[in-house]
Protein: Quinone oxidoreductase
Amino acid sequence: MPASTPHAIVLREFGDPAVLRAEPIALAPPGPGEVRVRHTAIGVNFHDVYVRSGLYKTLALPGIPGLEAAGVIEALGEGVTDLQVGQRVAWLTRAYGGYASHRNLPAELALPLPDGVSERTAASSLLKALTAYDLTHQVHALRAGDWVLNHASAGGVGQLVAQYGRHLGATVIGTVGSAAKAEIARACGCDHVILYRDEDFVARVQALTAGRGVDVAYDAVGQTTFMGSLASLAQRGHLVNYGQSSGPVPPFEVSALMPKSVSLTRPSVFSAYRNPAELRTLATRVFADFAAGVLRADAPQTFALAEAGRAHEALASRDRTQALVLIPD
Structure:
């Protein structure tokens, strides 16, 4: 398809990556309060896999998946005065629409990009960075001297949590699945790294903290680590479960929190920042942290938009350490 022709991955049925097929789309001029964005980079997330497979029934079919992207404003709808044609922006929304070469977007959702942040960095890292900021500054505000257990420290969010932990003066214990990932975790700020396949992370945490435990455990793994994370907490510690890559956490007795008076939170950026103005403020802080070097993100692996299925296959690789983006033709 010519680059000038708007096209998208239109999901018409749930299934394996082969259901992700590119096709032309009709795109009206932006309406009042909208902007048209020409995407230059599109984020690929595990959430997209759950949508494609049908595990999450949050996208009405036929529909265009994709939670985040970055690009350049091509046209303004009536009443839009705080943005300009040619301006670089990123966006994030549960309304989807990311796997497309162009889209119309409510102007209030367009997040201006500073000069120090590339479109590929924004598209590959915005959701992850917003999540990491929320976890370390809002859900459990880290302080100098805190002990932190950070699962999946070589993953997208895990790397950024470790970087924020280092910046804020915490001691970060990271868990990873391989020696190669351990090097990534250390480079991102983990003071101690546990290869969870080779040793009991609970016992190692207790040894490292002289039996005290950690002030907070950030756990996106879920089923296989949840009870161990709980056991790793210090008195009045805080378990933050923000994902379930190993499966959902089974029901447990709430009284299990009582012996050490610990707390449990299940946060979500989307539920916490429903107000677009709050989201823009948060994104401004995160972009400033990237520009200042507080956060860094390696260059993402790229796929053509039409190769979205291949990108989803790559996302499932246990050896992958790069973020992924789709590049429109």
Q: What stands out?
A: The chain has two domains: 7-125+270-327, 143-266. DSSP finds nine helices and 15 strands in the chain.
